[in-house]
Each structure stands twice: as structure tokens, then as C-alpha cells.
């Protein structure tokens, strides 16, 4: 005896007759859904059987009666399994879900598959099929469908919603426009159909021309550093502008010439800026160091160039 009615265990109705190779006997049909009984059970004394799911859904009132003999069924009545009938039904010969054109209409055969079909037809004189020809007992049908090469499967690649037969899955995935392809420059995986756009517009390792038209081809990831530190045509300001250098903003290639010509002036500006920043209570030692720095500058441009790299050290030392 099975347990009492439990809505959490409600199952679907019977098996449709069109899945069977031959029409099942009428006594195997459920009188509620008119399909072949699934998990047959009975409630009445006469033993009339129905699909467990059908009879469970039908028991919706306290005055429920057997649909066949009209016997009143108590609310707490227990199901009785008909194991013999179930075994008979499970051994009925069925067809695969993908045995007809309608079941596979959503997945057109691939070009290569059609070519193989035509080749097979011409070589052995038989008419090949694009549909599953499997037949077997009902209790083996689900296991077959789970592995059937004609079953519809969805492409595994993100963004592709194509459904193909399982037997064509490998061929589709080799050509799928959404299959990931490794960029030869940055090694990033990119969908095949997006690779051209990635290589031309997105890849950080692609070479692009400097926007300043300096003639250099720079990797995209390094362009900011190139413009900031190396491009000879980039517009830059003098690094001594903060201490009063009036050199106007110009190309980097001209900055080098300016720095070479303005060593003496830059040194004077640095010393003057430091003098202005010193508080009135500074010691004589600090003032002497500043005067010493000025004296070195007064020795002439040539001496200024030779001593220019020491100016920052002198200034830093004077602050100690």
C-alpha cells in the first residue's frame, strides 16, 4: 500500500500513445487523461487503476468517487499500486522523442551532415535518415533520450543560443561565431566574431600611431607613458615654471634646448625662491650657503652647467 494523498508528490499524467511503436491495449489507458497509465494506482474496491498524477489531481473534494465505478472514496483512503500493470507498461516498445521530423525541426542539419547523408545514400543505395531510429522498452526510453545523438542541445558558448543535434555539436562548436579565440597579441580570450574589432580597437598590445604624429608606433597600453614622458612633439612646460621660468609651453624636443640654454637662469630662480621661503630668523650658516651657491652661478655659464646638478643638493642641504 502506498501513502496517503500528498500534493508535494503529484506527478504528470499518462504517456501519450504516439510514443509507442504499436497502439497499446485499451485496458492500459487511464480513463481520466486517456493516455497510457503512468505509475498506475487504484483506490476503489474493484481495483480500477489510473495514473497516480491524474487520480491525485481528481481527489479535490471529500465526496470523491471512483471515475469508473462511482464508488465513494473516503478522504483518508490509501493508494494501492498495481505492480503487474506497471511492469507490462514499462516493457511496451517505444520510439525515441527525436524519431520524427517534427521533433527535430528546430535544428537544421549542418552542411557537413547533409553532405555525409547524400554520400551515404549514393554509396549503399539506401535512403538515409536525419532522425533517430531507436526503439526500445519504455523503461529504457529516458536513458536513451539523455544520450541520443539526435537530441537537441544548446551551444555551450556564452551568447550563442543555437540548438543543434548532439551528433553535430562538435562541428558547430568548431565554427561557432561565439567560440573563444585567444588574441595573439594580448592572449585574452575573445569571441571569434569580435576578434577583428578587438584587434583593431580594444587590444591593449596593438600598435597605434602617436596622436601627435611624431612617427612612433606605440602599444596602446604604453601610449599614456609615451605622451607624458617621451613624445618629442608633445606640448610640455618647463619643470622650473613653479619657481618663475617664463618659457612658454612648447614641444618636448624644444624643451631640451631650453634646459641647456637656461641653466644659469634656472639656478638663479631656484636660489631666489629659496631665499623668499626662508624665515627671518634663519642662521648665518644658511645665508652663507645661499651666497656660495650664487657665487658658483656668477662664475659663468660654463661653470653653471657643470654645477647645475648640485643646486638641488645645496638647497636641500641649506634647509637642514
TrEMBL record:
Tell me one GO molecular function of this protein.
zinc ion binding
Keyword Zinc-finger listed? The answer is yes
Region feature Disordered, mapped onto this chain: 105-128, 292-320
According to the entry, every stretch annotated as the RING-type domain falls at 30-70
Keyword Metal-binding set for record: yes
Q: Name one Pfam family in it.
A: zf-C3HC4_2
Give, as residue ranges, the zinc fingers classified TRAF-type: 143-196, 198-245
Q: Which UniProt keywords apply?
A: Metal-binding, Receptor, Zinc, Zinc-finger
Q: Which SMART domains match?
A: RING
| Protein known as | TNF receptor-associated factor 3
Q: Where is the TRAF-type domain?
A: 143-196, 198-245
- Where composition is biased (Basic and acidic residues), the residues are 292-313
